Amino acid sequence: MSRRGYVPEDERDFSDKALPLLRRGLSDVHELLNRGYPAKSAATFVGNRYQLSERQRLAIVRAASADEMIALRSAKKKASADGGRVAVDGFNIIITLESALSDTTVYRCMDGTVRDLAAMRGTYRILECTYKAAELLLEKVKSCEAAGADIFLDAPVSNSGRLKSLLLDKGEAMGVDVSCELVPNADTVLKACENVVTTDAIILNEAPSWLNFAAEIIEDKLPGTRVIELTDG
């Protein structure tokens, strides 16, 4: 079975033995961000200091946030949709859930989100786990008091049309009111939406409100998932 985002070296780079070093690295990046350093520079400095792999560097820089940004995102996070519709960053959420279902690297971040390391780079293909990821997403839409879901997919990404059809079919079968739109850049649309469902930090900083679907779904529906706790210790 194909696994979303699987890289064999992750078993070493994100093992229990590696976690103390990763947590020190995350703490250092966090401190540098609080002092106003750019994320890329902070990741390079800390990664070189601790001789981290590229994927380890990517994980800690994505996991880290300045205190100001953590507070901003926390203030805008909602527990339910309160009867409104949710605006879903389709590839972002589906790929995170696919990674969790594939038992590949997912990790908890300082803002409370769970993120993955799966690289898309404009290409995407539907896997066996995609169908389950879609079901989990739409089950969450039903349980969070949402009127429905407006899902946005980046049109330039390969197989975006196939994923759109899959999501619409699942929505109809599950009795969830789903719209799915292919757009040039989903981020641009989502930044202006209420009840955004994403783990993308840039969108979370700008959107008026958001819901933490990925972390909640993994915790509630996939309790056997190994979520790497970078923020502990």
Kindly report the average pLDDT value: 96
Please tally the β strands and state the result.
9
| N to C succession of SSEs | HHHHHEEHEEHEHEHEHEHE
Span between termini: 35 Å
Measured by DSSP, the beta-strand proportion falls in 5-15%
- Count the DSSP helices: 11
Domain module tally? 2
Structural class: alpha/beta
User: What can be said about the biggest beta sheet?
Assistant: 6 strands, parallel
Record the strand order, biggest sheet: 1-8-7-2-5-6
CATH class of the largest domain: Alpha Beta
Measured on Cα atoms, how large is the radius of gyration? Answer: 17 Å
Question: Looking at CATH, which topology of the largest domain would you report?
Answer: Rossmann fold
Uncertain residue segments? none
CATH architecture of the largest domain: 3-Layer(aba) Sandwich
- Shape by Cα distribution: globular
Question: How much helicity do the residues have?
Answer: 40-55%
SSE order and pairing:
Layout: H1 10-13, H2 19-34, H3 39-50, H4 54-63, H5 67-76, E1 77-78, E2 85-89, H6 90-101, E3 106-108, E4 114-116, H7 128-143, E5 148-154, H8 160-174, E6 178-183, H9 186-190, E7 196-197, H10 201-206, E8 210-211, H11 213-221, E9 227-229
Parallel strand pairs: 1-8, 2-5, 2-7, 3-9, 5-6, 7-8
Antiparallel strand pairs: 3-4
